């Protein structure tokens, strides 16, 4: 889609907003003022700015609707592309070719402002190379707050609203100011809000972060003077005052906003308070562990928000970590690839094509210490006597070595769009591949539910016998949901080391928010039925996964060449 922008003054978006904590909760005026109005500011005040699409349709009055369509539960590829083109032509600092979703536009803007390349399979951001130096520079007064924000956002991509404080002393200064402000409005505050605010002032920010849950969902805690509304309102007001003071006195700010995602900026479910000084003095491993723990907590399906006491975001995972004495693990990296150049097959893959793709991936993953996938090799050696002629030193013996390839774990789509014929075809294909590889299989069926894991032994059995065992396994049915499989694999180190293969028709759209995609999860078509439709669905899935895994096309076995 070609977007034409006329008479618009290139803008820089400011995430600071002050949604009132009184009356009905309505974030739309703040969204209009923060995101839309700057894009429509005219260069020549005597004429309005206009934005039109390729057909000449006027988009000027629909910009806010376009933004909202990018914040749904699933990614809207068309709206994402349109909004990115608009932002690319209206903002001073924005890369419209970014793989990141529109929800992370403030991170993209900050990164462009600081000339930071977009994250990709070949551009990886880390705590050691990016977050730590940016924190030190901000603490020393030689770096920008936007560089620190972009480095954290590009390294960890947390789906939350953050506020940074230069030190624990700066946070104590905010708490003192907050106590003074709440005293003046004490008569208007409900008792529950007053108690929670008092509990908040008892918090300490001596560590890297302090994080709180403030809402169960977007409809929760939106009453007048609720704790969630009052706290965010006060934090924004404090940052606004800090900015005015710094401008008047020509001094550095000691607090600011970290708008990681748009949805959380205007209706946050969680808050993360960040100590810059602690980041500047911490080890990279500690920083990585802290933010991985935050992301793990944000991804947890169980979130309990209390009306009577502060709900800390990371309290449950921290307690579990202490109990299990586990160290924080580094986030798995993404495989390098050039997915944009990968072409889809024009014809359905043969069984030999799929077998070749699977064995290629297994070889790339390398050997493991132990698995059900045993690989034996025999070689001639003079270190061992010849079995038939043990006294003839000129004849070599044979030595057999045993190695282990990663186990194979199959997840078969059994949702309503998959017929019994498709299911049988997919299973028989996998049985033949397993027999050719001479390995056992781990197996789950899935829809919007995930079946219990089963290990199927295929060695020394005919295809008919194995299919008979498959038929005995109950399979689930219903809708389609991939993220449950991602979470299931990521929850176990053992499953993470397996080659996981999802057999599906690709009729699913990923969430608009970033998720942790398993490193060794690949996809295969469930059958050759209506191949052009299968390719269209796979292309749609690959295009909508760019913000989660840019190299996803390389994972579509049997689909690409």
What does this structure look like?
The chain is of the alpha/beta class. 40% of the residues lie in helices and 14% in strands. It is built from 19 helices and 14 strands. The strands form 4 sheets. Strands 5-3-6-4-7 form a 5-stranded mixed β-sheet, sandwiched between helices. Strands 12-11-10-13-14 form a 5-stranded mixed β-sheet, with helices on both faces. A hairpin with a 7-residue loop joins strand 11 and strand 12. Helix 4 crosses helix 6 (145-156), helix 5 packs across helix 12 (284-299) and helix 15 packs across helix 16.
Number of strands: 14
Overall mean pLDDT stands at 87
Work out the helix count.
Answer: 19
Q: Specify Rg, calculated over alpha carbons.
A: 28 Å
Describe the sheet with the most strands: 5 strands, mixed
Distance between the termini: 28 Å
- Please indicate the percent range of residues in DSSP E strands (runs of 2 or more): 5-15%
Low-confidence stretches: 325-340
Question: What is this entry, summarized?
Answer:
The protein is of the alpha/beta class. The chain has helices at 28-36, 63-69, 77-90, 105-113, 127-140, 145-156, 168-184, 191-201, 227-249, 262-266, 276-281, 284-299, 315-324, 351-365, 420-437, 463-472, 483-490, 493-496, 531-544, and strands at residues 4-6, 50-52, 161-165, 209-213, 255-259, 270-275, 311-312, 373-385, 396-405, 408-413, 441-446, 454-456, 499-504, 521-525.
Highlighted features:
561 residues, alpha/beta, 5-stranded mixed beta sheet
